[in-house]
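Practice set, problem 2.
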Amino acid sequence: MNLLIQKFLSFSWCKENLITPFGFEKSSSNNEACVLIAISNFSDLSKIGKDVKSAIEKAGFDCLFIEENSLKILAIIEELEAMQSYRNVDG
C-alpha cells in the first residue's frame, strides 16, 4: 500500500481527501488483483474518483471503492506512514 501511495498518490493528498488504498481482493469479473480503496464520502468520487482510478490503473490494478468512516481512514493512513518511517529508519 505504501508504494501505491508514494508512487501514484501521496500521504498528504490521501489525508486531505480522506481516501486511501488499504488492501487487495480478487476481482469477481476477471479474477485478478483489485485494490480496495476506502473513501469517506461517495459523493467525493465525482471529484477525485477518476484520478484515483487512473493512478491505480497505472500500477496495473483495478480498484474497488468502499465507503468508510473518516477516522478509520486517517488511522489506516497513519499506520501506513508509521510503517514507511520505520522502513526508512531501518533501511
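Problem 2, part (b): a different protein.
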Amino acid sequence: MKQFLFQITLAGVTFCPLLRGEDAQPSPATSSVTTTPTIVGPAREFEPPPRRQLVADVPESQVLQRSRVATGGRTVTIEELIPPEGAPLVEQASVPTFTPEEIAARRAAWLANRRAHPIVMLSLSGTIYDHKATLLRWRHGVEEYEAWSNIDFNVMRGVPSVQVGNTNYDLVMMLGDQSTAPRRTKSGLVITPRVPTIPQLPKVPGFVIVKGDPLNEYALRGIRALHELYTTNREKLVAAHEDQLHYQAAAQAWEKEHPPQPENVTIRWWRGRRDQEATSEAQPAIKPEGGQP
C-alpha cells in the first residue's frame, strides 16, 4: 500500500505540468474552438422550495440515549435508536492492490492520454466596467498577463470549460462589476471611481494585451478561444445570462417575503451489527440528557 501511494505521489509530482498542458508549445490555431460548450445555468422559472416533510416520531422504547444542543435559535436533538430488524452488515470496502508492473502500465496509459488530451486550468479574474469592457488578469507560468476585452464577461459566467483542438481549458473565473459613475455617500461626499485607461478596442469581439508577452500564443489560446466562443454563441450566452438574472431576482424576492425561520432538528442513528460487536471504546461522545458527560 505504501508503495502504491508513493508511486501515485511520484506520478503527480512528475506529470503535474502535463496536466496543465505544459508538456509542449502547441502551434497556434486560427479557428481553434472545436466544440460547442455546455452552458451552465437554470433553464426554468423559479419555483418556491417544497415544505419540509417532518419525520414521524419513534416510540420512546426505541431510544437508547438522547442529547440536545441549543444553537442558532433552534434545538438540535441527537437520538441513538435500537437497530431495526434486519439491519445490514456493514462490510469494510476492499482496497485494490497493484503490482509494480501494473502501476507502471496504468501510469503510462494516463500519461499517454494526457499527452493526447491535455487539461489546462485557466484561472481568470476580471473587472467589468459599466458592462462594456472587462479587464482580465491571469498567469501563464510565472508571468502575469492583463488584457482589455470588449465583452461583458458576465455573460461568460455559465461557461465551465472550452475545448481548443485536443486541449480542454477548465475555467475558474472570479468576476466583479465596477461602475464608473460618481456616487454620493450617506454623508454627502461624492466619490468618483478611479478607472484605468481603456485602450482602443476592436470593433468585433476581441481583446488587447496590456501586460505580458503578446507573442506567446500558448498563453493566449484560452483567452482567444473564449472570444471565439462568444462570437459563435453570443445569443445563447446572453440568453442564459438573462435567464440566470431572472431566476436570481425571483429567488431573492421570494426569500425576502419568506425569511427563513430557525427550525428544530432531530438526528437519529443506530449502530450496524459490526458496531454492536465492538467494545465500549467505540462509543460516541454524546452528552446525556440534561447534564455533562
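Answer key, part (b): The two ends are 39 Å apart (CA to CA). DSSP finds four helices and eleven strands in the chain.
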